[in-house]
Amino acid sequence: MELSSIVEALVTSSDEPLSSEEIARLVRSRVAEAEDIHARKTEEGETTDPLPDWMTALAELAEDQVVAAIAELNKSYDESGRAFSLREGAKGWRIFTRVDYGDFVKQLFPGRKPERLSAPAMETLAIVAYRQPITKSAIEAVRGVSCDGMLQKLLDRELVRIGGRADLPGRPLLYETTGLFYEHFGIRSIDDLPNAGELRKVKLPEPEEETAEISPEEQLALSATEGATQEEDSGESTDESTDESESTEASAEETQKAEA
């Protein structure tokens, strides 16, 4: 049994992408299991045959051997004209249909139309990808315009996520790309982006002072406080007006008495 066939069986059977490390671990685990079973059968006299050479050769399987086996698989796919190939994404290896057959595959999903990002959304996504984690103010400093709507669109499409808060005054939110972003663009890490090393070092414009985003609960509390303050101010104004009115009436009565 060849390693390439074992790798193919694992990748096609898994619901999730498998990394080279995970594939190697699964193979070693199976060999260890087989060795334990063989040792028990040997002790009980059920067998005297040794384990197959191909299995014992996989006892110390390494990641680079898995990568080599996958390269062998892709080469055989190319030579035989298969419609798919193995590609490595951010989470591991998966089988993908070749682009040449995309128009035929689309017929499986007649109601699904391709969604495209607008130029402003792509600009915002590029800034997040190259300079993540990054705050909204830093993004706006580069683009020169507000990016609330663009960020929300990217969040809705799960290409960007909130990765925490910056250690800055106001603790602003930090934005970063998601696993779907890497899968969609067919890359494993930010280092696979064009000119990543250079663009990640370019000095960006200084953002304005960061401000914290107020939650709905804080907004309600603030509104209640402002309302109470306004009521107190209104009450004080009413009391002052009443005092002034009473003082005016008293002065008028004294004047009438003096004239009489």
Note the topology.
Blueprint: H1 3-13, H2 20-43, H3 53-56, H4 63-80, E1 84-88, E2 93-97, H5 102-105, H6 119-131, E3 134-135, H7 136-143, H8 148-156, E4 160-165, E5 173-177, H9 179-185, H10 196-199, H11 216-259
Antiparallel strand pairs: 1-2, 3-5, 4-5
Helix pairs in contact: 1-4, 2-4, 6-8
Highlighted features:
mainly alpha; Arc Repressor Mutant, subunit A; 3-stranded antiparallel sheet; two-stranded antiparallel sheet; 11 helices; 9% strand; disordered C terminus
Structure description:
- The protein has 260 residues and is mainly alpha-helical.
- It has two domains: 106 residues, Winged helix-like DNA-binding domain superfamily/Winged helix DNA-binding domain (Arc Repressor Mutant, subunit A); 81 residues, Arc Repressor Mutant, subunit A, CATH 1.10.10.
- It has eleven helices and five strands.
- The strands form two sheets. A three-stranded antiparallel sheet has the order 3-5-4. A two-stranded antiparallel sheet has the order 1-2.
- Strand 4 and strand 5 form a beta hairpin.
- The radius of gyration is 35 Å and the shape is elongated.
- CATH topology grouping of the largest domain: Arc Repressor Mutant, subunit A
Domain count: the total is 2
Category from helices, strands and their pairing: mainly alpha
User: What number is the mean pLDDT?
Assistant: 82
Low-confidence segments, given as residue ranges, are 214-223, 228-260
N- to C-terminal separation? 127 Å
Q: Nearest-angstrom radius of gyration?
A: 35 Å
Sum up the overall morphology in one term.
elongated
What would CATH call the homologous superfamily of the largest domain? Winged helix-like DNA-binding domain superfamily/Winged helix DNA-binding domain
Q: Main β-sheet: number of strands, strand sense, barrel status?
A: 3 strands, antiparallel
What is the CATH-assigned architecture of the largest domain? Orthogonal Bundle
Please state roughly what percent of the residues sit in beta strands, choosing from under 5%, 5-15%, 15-25%, 25-35%, 35-45% or over 45%.
5-15%
Strand order of the largest sheet: 3-5-4
CATH class of the largest domain: Mainly Alpha
Query: How many DSSP helices?
Result: 11
E-strand count: 5
Helix proportion:
55-70%
Order of helices and strands: HHHHEEHHEHHEEHHH
